[in-house]
Amino acid sequence: MHGATMARNIRRVGIPVGKTHDRRSNDTLAAGQYAPIDVEDPYDRNGKITVLRQLRCDPLARLHTHHQIDEAQYHAGRAYQRDWEVAERGAKAIDPTKEAVDGGRIPEPMTDQQGKARMRLVAMSRELGREMRKLANAVLIDGLSIEGYAIGQGRSGARWANYYGKLFRDGLDVLAVEYGLAARK
Questions:
Q1: Residue 50 — φ and ψ, nearest 5°?
Q2: pLDDT number for residue 72
Q3: How far, in Å, CA of 148 to CA of 161, rounded?
């Protein structure tokens, strides 16, 4: 009987029933750059939890954290990134410069999802225009900062960073309209 009483006491000492679990990681890198963001709780459909997101290699998250872009622009950038990831999976072009070998993998057929993502990207490319598309791909796909893109174009300084920053935000506005996240002005 003494053992059963002890087990009951141990259960009471543990985490009380109904208490929210803190699932945030304290294991962050010293060189990391982090910011909190509220996301849907995977264990509670109606709940939200605060998590830390890494900003170091994510220029879109950095702009969002510093309130330089709004929610529609942020989600439009993420939608563009998702379409790019989906479209890139599967069939790849054959590189004629490489030596052909036996036993290579048979390319996977393109799925409907990939086809739709590629069609959306073609439509987005037309809407963005050449210069905005280059900048959007550099920042959203290649992970370049706006300042890094400006330097890559042979233009440095705050004036050019501001110019490309405005051009990028304008591109995100176009994407937000095309993805149905904002109304046309």
A1: -100, 130
A2: 93
A3: 9
pTM above the 0.85 mark? no
Radius of gyration for the chain, computed over Cα atoms and rounded to the nearest angstrom: 23
CA dihedral 94, 98, 101, 104 (to 10 degrees): -40
The mean of the pLDDT values for the chain is 78
Contact 60, 140 (CB under 8 A): yes
Distance CA 31, CA 66 (A): 19
Residue 7: other Cβ atoms inside 10 A? 9
Amino acid in position 87: A
Instruction: List pLDDT tens digits, range 62-77.
Output: 888 888 999 999 999 9
Instruction: Using the structure block, give the residue that is written with the tokens 């400006």.
Output: 150
Percent of the chain with pLDDT over 70: 65
pLDDT of the residue at 65: 82
Tokens describing residue 173: 């506005």
- Which is nearest to 110 in space by CA: 87, 126, 84? 87
Q: Domain locations in the chain? A: 72-91+110-185
**What 3-state class would DSSP assign to 62?**
helix
Cross-strand pairs, 36: 52
